[in-house]
Structures are given as C-alpha cells and as structure tokens.
Design a protein that fits this description.
DUF3575 domain-containing protein, DUF3575, eight-stranded antiparallel barrel, Porin, two-stranded antiparallel ribbon, alpha+beta, 2 domains, about 180 residues, 2 helices
Length: about 180
C-alpha cells in the first residue's frame, strides 16, 4: 500500500513538473525580445522606414528607427531620419498595449524654399540642414502569439539647433507598422 502511494505521488510530481515546463515554454514564446517593423504609412507616401526594437522587460523597450525618402515629389522636405527611442508600455501583455515614447532624432531636411501656387520652386535659400530633435510620442501595439505585431503611433519633437536655416522647427513621427517579434 505504501509502495503504491509512493508511486502515485512520484508520478503526480513528475506530471506537474512537466506541465509547468510546458507553461514556461509558452510564456517564453510570448516574451520574445527582438522585433523588426516596417512602416506601411510612409511606404505609401514614397519613403522607407524600418525599426528595430529590443524589449528589455514586460514594461519597457529601446529601439532605433531609420527613415529614407526616395520619392521627393511627395515629401519635399525630409531627406532622412535616424531616431533612437525608449518606450514604456502600460498593457497587460508582454511589451504590448498603450505606450509612451521619448525619442531623439538626427535628420536632414531641405533648406528654406519658396514655391509658387503650382508647386514650382521659385527660391532656394540654402543647402540641406542637419539637426537634432527631442520629442515625445504615444501609441498602441498589439502582438499575436505567432510573433506578428501591429502598431499605431504619433509623436512630435522640436529641432534644437538649426531651425532658423529651414522652414521647419519640428519633426513629427507617424506610424502604421507591421512587424515580427523573434
């Protein structure tokens, strides 16, 4: 009798440990640390924006975004942007839900320009301007169990140094992104 009881207890312990390991494995799949994203919004406007994000824990991440404008007819002002960021998530799931973001941006914009009513350039007052901006943003992120992510965000940053040499004193961030977490 004691022997049967001991075998049952050992078997129960083994299966409980096995179930906990499976639960931990599923949890680890949802807590993938790396993510790459493409911004569909800017792609439709003639630019390419890609983002790498590293999830530090359930509530925070760091990343870097790069934007290059290849269709100058649609966006005549921005040439490129490189923007590191820090995010703080407030959702229940791992690195998902509503977030706040602080970012810095190094980028190039066109110098001061004047155009006529037809969009023709009438006065060009200078070369491209390099500047650094600091700003804040907010948005939401949703992640599937398979690792696909969807993100919507907006943000605004102010130029710090050369806003007098261009028509712009701020940089805005907009994203409708799809990505993969691995």
């Amino acid at each position: 009798m004691k022997r049967r009881f001991l075998i049952i207890v050992i078997s129960f312990t083994f299966f409980t440990v096995k179930a906990q390991n499976q639960k931990d494995t599923l949890s680890q799949l949802n807590e993938r640390k790396n993510e790459v994203k493409l911004n569909a919004y800017f792609t439709a406007l003639g630019a390419f924006e890609a983002t790498y994000e590293r999830n530090l824990n359930k509530r925070s991440s760091v990343g870097i975004t790069g934007l290059y404008v290849f269709n100058k007819k649609r966006d005549e002002d921005t040439n490129f942007l490189i923007s590191p960021f820090y995010r703080r998530y407030f959702g229940k799931k791992y690195a998902s839900g509503f977030f706040l973001e602080g970012f810095g941006t190094f980028g190039s914009t066109d110098g001061k320009q004047l155009t006529d009513m037809d969009g023709n350039l009438t006065l060009d007052e200078g070369p491209d301007v390099l500047d650094f901006s600091l700003g804040f943003g907010f948005g939401g992120k949703w992640a599937t169990k398979s690792g696909i992510t969807f993100e919507v965000m907006v943000g605004l940053g102010l130029h710090l140094f050369n806003s007098d040499k261009t028509d712009h004193n701020s940089v805005n961030r907009r994203a409708l992104s799809i990505g993969y977490r691995f």
